[in-house]
Amino acid sequence: MGYLLLISFIIHGITLVIIRQLKIKIDQPAVTKQTLDQQKKEIEELLAVYLLEIREENDKLLEAINHKTETKSKVNTGSNDTQVQKPILSSTQQTTSTAKPETEKYQDYQPLLPKDEDEPVETSFAAQVLALADRGYSAEAIAKELNRGKTEVELLIKFHQR
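The structure assignment produced for this chain is given below.
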């Protein structure tokens, strides 16, 4: 009876150790979740700060660009309009005058066409044997006509009859 009591205490001790280990494993995700939540909040705050800095820099850049364009437009308002229209007209006149010689240059162009020469098609030995067999020739006659062995012709016919 003493042995049974000793075995019972050992089993209870082992189960308590296992239960404690399982509780530790269950509690770990809760701790890691808290640390992840803290890290998430810190990252969100950092991103918000960076976003504000980028917006401020973009606003400054837009103001600088607008200021430069306003000063350039005030200086070049009258003279720019007439100068821009003249080159456009002259460039269109140039394209029409240069387009005609180019079309004349390629007027007699004829695209290359494939040659109509028929190359002789050689039929394979197997095709020749099967064609002659379909016409009713015997294996010996086919072998004589194609200058091949009788057994070679017979085997080829047998393979293709399947």
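Interim note for the steering committee: The two ends are 84 Å apart (CA to CA). The first helix runs from residue 2 to 75.
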